[in-house]
């Protein structure tokens, strides 16, 4: 490695929902630690702390822990820092290779900083401002729809004293949901790149108006993934094997190490594709003939939808049923 690489500051961040444990690896190999809140105020405090240590542009590394890493990753990347977002399994393996027996948030942050120094992982590409806005809109829509379902459940058993208040809240939520759906449609219409990619995804039987914006908000730039396999793993849809020696042969299961929101968004489209579309029916029948259970078939179709969506977005060509007829 070059002298420049050895002299670089490396920042490891152990991400949690409410806080960020940060470890700054100095050029001499020592660490400085700080804990900040996982919000905009905490990000600003982190930046000020880095400047205090003359580390304004460190190599930053963090694990892909649910969705909690996204805010700080986007903030630091926006400041011009090189940010890497890695699979937690890589840090687990790195820790095992060092025979680390202590596990605390502080130790984990230092491990991540050391990993960044030694392995120099590939930089993460931040989503475009248009993608970030779209993601905020679809996440807000999902939150309001979940809230409406909760209120609807409460209304079924509500006493008269609170019924009117719940009904008024549901009416407000309905209006907000309708406005958000229009805002999402308008946001995509106004962006030529997103509009063109929506047309590509719309050619895939099984995907509809609710799912396409979700896929666009995470996969609009397929160049951020080296392969469809990586795109599948990003959603936690990759199969996890459990085998050891000749006697342990666990059933493959969905890893679920990824975005639960993407998995939730793909469940109903997978059901529709398997039961209502010609290509999906063929896909499902092939798995049924192989003795696969219904639940496994739906999971496989969710995975297939990501593969197909990634393919049409990367190639710029609409869905071709002939490619999926076998």
Describe, in plain words, how this protein is organized in 3D.
The chain is built from 13 helices and 7 strands. It is globular, with a radius of gyration of 23 Å. The N and C termini lie far apart (48 Å). With 326 residues, the protein is an alpha/beta fold.
Averaging pLDDT over every residue, what do you get?
Answer: 90
| Main sheet strand line-up | 3-2-1-4-5
Q: State the major sheet.
A: 5 strands, mixed
From the alpha carbons, calculate the radius of gyration and give it in angstroms.
23 Å
Can you give the helix content as a percent range?
55-70%
Number of discrete helical segments: 13
Sum up the structure in keywords.
13 helices; 5-stranded mixed β-sheet; globular; alpha/beta; 326 residues; two-stranded antiparallel sheet
What is this structure's SSE topology?
Elements: H1 3-6, E1 10-15, E2 19-25, E3 31-37, H2 40-52, E4 59-63, H3 70-78, E5 82-86, H4 88-97, H5 105-119, H6 129-157, H7 160-189, H8 192-202, H9 211-219, H10 228-234, E6 239-244, E7 248-254, H11 260-276, H12 278-289, H13 294-315
Parallel strand pairs: 1-4, 4-5
Antiparallel strand pairs: 1-2, 2-3, 6-7
Helix pairs in contact: 6-7, 6-9, 9-11, 10-13, 11-12, 11-13, 12-13
